[in-house]
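Re-run with default settings, no changes from the original entry. Doing this only to confirm the output is reproducible before filing.
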Amino acid sequence: MKVKIGLVQSRCVSDKEKNLEGALAGIARAAEQGAHIVCLQELFLTPYFCQVEDSDRFALAEPVPGPTTDRIAAAAREYGCVVVASLFEKRAPGIYHNTAAVIDADGTYLGKYRKTHIPDDPNYHEKFYFTPGDLGYRTWDTRYGRIGVLVCWDQWYPEAARLTALSGAQILFYPTAIGWMDEEKESQGAAQHCAWETVQRGHAVANGCYVAAVNRTGREGALEFWGGSFVANPFGEVMARADAGKEAVLVVECDLGRIDEIRCNWPFFRDRRIETYGDLQKRFLD
């Protein structure tokens, strides 16, 4: 089965409605190019507000499902494509999540994944806003294949990719918001970008699946988001990559029929020695 993935890489403005309209236009553009599954970038409705700790910004959150997923679902139904949409979820007073909703090609809300790994770095104060996810690593059977979704900082953890792949994911989607700080770009920028892309390409190889990462672009405050959205095949090869500083709709065809063949020839799942991995549940082996 050949499936086309669409990644919508965009700049964000302060107006949520304009960002939503831009996302809907990106879904339409991807669908016009034949995309069957479209993924939006992390927290696409707003600028990346986690650069500061400000309790007023909790007002940006909304229920999931809720008003934005309703509008995304209408677009999914109109264009006949699956959509992955990353949102700031208000679960309850004082409990907020960084959440990705999955909507099937007929507009049906299938469920959500809540970001598990929450960073706390300069200009990435996510622990102030987000409670770690508690839904586990999930996959969904969509009209166009079985997909898994992880979010940004989850990208660096092979355990998350492996557990999602073990539940049947043929494609791992990573909505993302990552960029450079000015004081680091010249000395570390190339290495940071290389590490980010390489670790995800490794997830594709180790799990015999496709990996699709969609990152925002443009300058916001102290961060220059580096774009570079890409799709990697199960050999870790980058099939297509968006430019760093431009908005883009990237559409890439993936042959899901090759996954069984690849996993049979590189049987990493078969040869796992699960009885030796118990110590992974420890923080450190002292």
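The mean pLDDT is 97. The domain at 2-266 is CATH 3.60.110.10 (Nitrilase/N-carbamoyl-D-aminoacid amidohydrolase).
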